[in-house]
Write a structure and sequence with these properties.
The chain has 129 residues and is of the alpha+beta class. The chain has one domain: Beta Complex (Metal Binding Protein, Guanine Nucleotide Exchange Factor, Chain A), CATH 2.170.150.20. Helices cover 12% and strands 31% of the residues. It has two helices and nine strands. The protein has a six-stranded antiparallel beta sheet. A three-stranded antiparallel beta sheet has the order 2-1-9, with no helix packed on it. It is globular and about 45 Å long.
Length: 129
């Protein structure tokens, strides 16, 4: 997907641009989806790619929306060695926007994964009915 960064900078808030395009992070417990319970589909704020079903969301207590799995083919992964840590970055498979990181400390009864996402990267399309 060809992204026009100039147009994107005008479309997104400074915080959204910082997180999605410059690999920043929002403050814990500040995002609008941390405690969201509505059913629907979480999509990429930049391109609208469907990323996570609300059924995969759980309360991790970390201060960011957390999911135990992404939709098949929706995300891709890159090694992240920034800030003196070895982590796995999660990016939108469609537009390469930074979404957050995935960790191996999620619910053992499901996938064991915790996709720790930034609310500013997501748009919830609520399920009707």
């Amino acid at each position: 997907m060809d992204i026009n960064e100039k147009e994107l900078k005008q479309k997104l808030t400074p915080e959204e641009y910082s997180v999605l395009r410059e690999k920043g992070t929002e403050m814990p417990f500040s995002g609008k989806y941390v405690h969201e319970k509505k059913a629907g589909m979480y999509k990429c704020k930049v391109c609208g790619n469907a990323l996570f079903a609300s059924d995969a969301k759980f309360d991790s207590g970390t201060g960011w929306p957390s999911f135990d799995q992404a939709l098949p083919g929706a995300v891709k992964y890159e090694k992240d060695s920034e800030h003196g840590m070895e982590r796995t970055e999660v990016l939108c498979a469609n537009c390469n926007s930074h979404l957050g990181h995935v960790f191996e400390d999620g619910p053992a009864e499901t996938t064991g994964k915790r996709y720790c996402m930034n609310s500013v990267c997501l748009e919830l399309e609520e399920r009707k009915g």
